Amino acid sequence: MNNKLKIYRAMHDLTQEQMADQIGVSRQTVIAIENNKYLPSLGLAFKISKLFGVAIEEIFTYKGGANES
Amino acid sequence: MLHYVSMNRKKYNQFRVIVTFFVSAIVVLAVLSDSYLLSIAGVVTGLIFMALVRSKAKIKIDEREKTIREKAAQLTYAIFAPTLGIGAFLLLIPYQKISPVFAQGEFVYLESLGMIFAYLALFLITLYAISYYFLNRKFGGDVHE
User: Fold this and answer.
1) B108 domain-assigned
2) Are B67 and B131 in the same domain?
3) Which domain holds residue B132?
4) What total number of domains does chain A contain?
5) Is the ipTM of this complex over 0.95?
6) Is residue A51 part of a domain?
7) Does residue B52 sit in the same domain as residue B82?
8) What average pLDDT values come out for chain B (145 residues) when binned by 10 residues?
């Protein structure tokens, strides 16, 4: 799974801390998602897409693969 | 009047380290002076204090942390249950019949320890099975349509 979270965050001029507060998670979680270390739940993905005003698939791209977890 | 304590995760962790250090120091002092009541009081006070701080600090536990906790619990169970089971099995082997050395002295307690381990392993597996059953029901695992 790839994502453009860092790009959208920069476009909206948000820090990791600000974004974390707005979607109700810790800053470590935002860092982990940006670095593809953690896959967000569907609910959190919707919150992120709502925050940036775009569809989920604009931010997250599914590549497939056996090791997706 | 109660005041809201502004505290983030980093400050909370620092606070926890300090409280743990003081509780450990109290326990060490209590054990050295043979005052077990003081050690219990120290640990209980530390637990109550941390629970109060945690409720006031409003520490955020998000889905990533929950996932980490789930995986840590899973790993702990996967290691601990077989360890207890194998430990119980090894301790319950009738060594007395193999060698008369084991029939005397401190070795007579090995079987009792093995029984305790066996019951602990059973308790752990039962608890897991009950938790699994109720969580499976909660998340709709037995719904037939």
Assistant:
1) yes
2) yes
3) 63-138
4) 1
5) no
6) yes
7) no
8) 51 84 90 86 88 75 90 96 93 74 69 91 96 91 62
Cα–Cα nearest to B10, from B46, B80, B60: B60
Provide the chain B residues 24-83 that lie in CB contact (below 8 A) with chain A. Answer: 60, 62-65, 67
Query: Whole-model pTM?
Result: 0.70
Q: Is A61 on the interface with B (CB under 8 A)?
A: no
Task: Give the Cα separation of B112 and B107 in Å (integer).
Answer: 10
Q: Which two tokens stand for residue B57?
A: 């600090």
| Residues in chain A within 8 Å Cβ distance of B60 | 24-26
- Tell me: the pLDDT tens digits for A42-56? 999 999 999 999 999
Position A68 pLDDT exceeds 80: no
Of B9, B60, B64, the CB nearest to A38: B64
